[in-house]
Specification:
10 helices, about 300 residues, Rossmann fold, 10-stranded mixed sheet, alpha/beta, single chain
């Protein structure tokens, strides 16, 4: 008789109990959903991001993708959630400056150039430095391998009791640094690993990614689901695109950004679209829609 062997095998009764805990009935009672902080976007996501879900936040450069991710991080930190940000392109200090600028509502270029700061800017900046909201956000800028990410999360759990949300920016840099065999693409491996991490930690993970340059060659440059890789579409439960028409067309509304939910909780080709206010001077988003629209 084999002894002292542990397995992950579960009885159907246990599985059903787990399903009940995550069913609409129980979710309504305890609401474990992670909100983006924008009610219209959360509505398009049927309430928000669920535990174990992998979400892609993708856009062409210049659309405000990192700024939007920072908004989500700050909104959750203010709600008392622990947020861990893995930054693969910007340093922790650079990302920290972005968070401070957003909180203080100051143009980012002013932060390290005192001659441009007004008395009001100085006051707002001091208030931001004293904010307790940042204590709920951890930034790691040197975890370029999946194993290192696991180490960081283990340390985070020991010190802070775990994370409620993970944001990874820019996932493409992690893909480029991964080592895989010739038969398996790096993007496939990375998304499989990150999806597994979301399941292990039982929390949502948002991966920020760049959309391909080929979008620039077509007349309608609004992102669509086919713009992401097949492996990304397969492994993710939610796909969110950012698009600013004014970036390409002179007639576009300068102070608006379109948030397109192309996939939500596994359901594809939704193309739910909401409009958010875009303040390019402060790289900030704001709510302007009262309800979502379908493309």
């Amino acid at each position: 008789m084999i002894k002292n062997i542990t397995t992950n095998i579960k009885s159907v009764k246990e599985i059903i109990r787990g399903c009940k805990n995550k069913s609409a009935l129980d979710l309504k009672a305890r609401s474990p959903l992670i909100k983006t902080g924008f009610s219209t976007v959360d509505c398009a996501l049927s309430g928000g991001l669920r535990p174990e879900e992998l979400t892609i936040l993708a856009a062409r450069p210049g659309m405000g993708r990192t700024a939007f991710a920072c908004e989500i991080a700050l909104n959750n930190a203010k709600a008392g959630k622990n947020v861990c940000i893995f930054s693969f392109s910007l340093s922790a200090e650079e990302l920290g400056w972005r968070l401070i600028a957003r909180e203080a509502k100051i143009e980012p270029f002013k932060l390290r150039q005192p001659k441009y700061l007004t008395d009001e800017d100085t006051y707002k900046l001091r208030e931001s430095f004293n904010s307790n909201d940042f204590s709920n956000i951890l930034i790691c800028d040197n975890a370029f391998k999946y194993e290192k990410i696991l180490e960081v999360m283990k340390e985070y759990t020991l010190q802070y009791g775990g994370s409620d949300l993970i944001i990874m920016d820019d996932i493409n840099c992690l893909s480029n640094r991964s080592r895989t065999n010739k038969r398996q693409s790096t993007s496939t491996t990375v998304y499989c690993q990150i999806r597994a991490l979301a399941k292990i930690l039982d929390i949502p993970i948002i991966c920020c990614d760049n959309l391909p340059r080929t979008i620039e060659n077509r007349k309608n440059k609004r992102p669509r689901l086919s713009d992401i890789t097949p492996s990304a579409e397969k492994e993710t439960q939610n796909v969110i695109f950012l698009y600013r028409d004014s970036y390409y067309n002179d007639g576009g509304t300068e102070n608006e950004c379109e948030v397109i939910v192309a996939k939500a909780h596994g359901e594809s080709d939704l193309n739910k679209s909401v409009r958010l206010g875009w303040d390019g001077q402060h790289t900030a988003f704001s709510e302007i829609d009262c309800e979502s629209e379908d493309n």
